[in-house]
Amino acid sequence: MTLTNAYASMAALKAELNIGQADTSYDVKLETALNSASRQIDRHCGRRFWQDTAVVDRQYYADTPYLVHTDDISTLTGLVVKVDTGDDGTYATTLTINTQFIVLPTNAGDDGLPWYMIRLVDADTTTFPLWTSGRPSVQVTAKFGFATVPDDVNKACLIQATQLFKASDAVFGGLSFDAGILRVRETLNPMAAALVEYYVKPRVA
User: pTM for this one?
Assistant: First the structure.
């Protein structure tokens, strides 16, 4: 097993657990904990914090003739927005950023956050079709995810991975400590959950 889009490194988790960096006897277990913790964070937040290595295209249904919610767009480099204006599954019309559309939230990039909405700004001449055929009318080509893993997400991953690493020591769902019993939860550790709460993606009604 190898680390796959994990939000913390093996070295950092070993340091957290006071395991020597040269000690490889726990490596598989540590990798499993880091991978699992990272995916738990993804599910809790409703988004992922790793970036595509290359641009990919995804299709979306418009929320209104002027707005479409997308997955997180990590960078505007390579961003292409196209529209199916013929209800034929062909995205033949390419839109121009800042002329025909803008990306929202407005200052996301300045805050190290992704964009996840596309808003038309020339509504008099351009709209997103809402086809009754059921075809998605908008295609977005971009690198999706986060450009960099936020520090809070990194720390939450270490906390959650530590709990998962120690879970095999649990008896009937608990870990014994001098101060009592630490319960092993299916959800995120409360401290990890608090760290990533800011990044929980707003739900679209």
Answer: 0.86
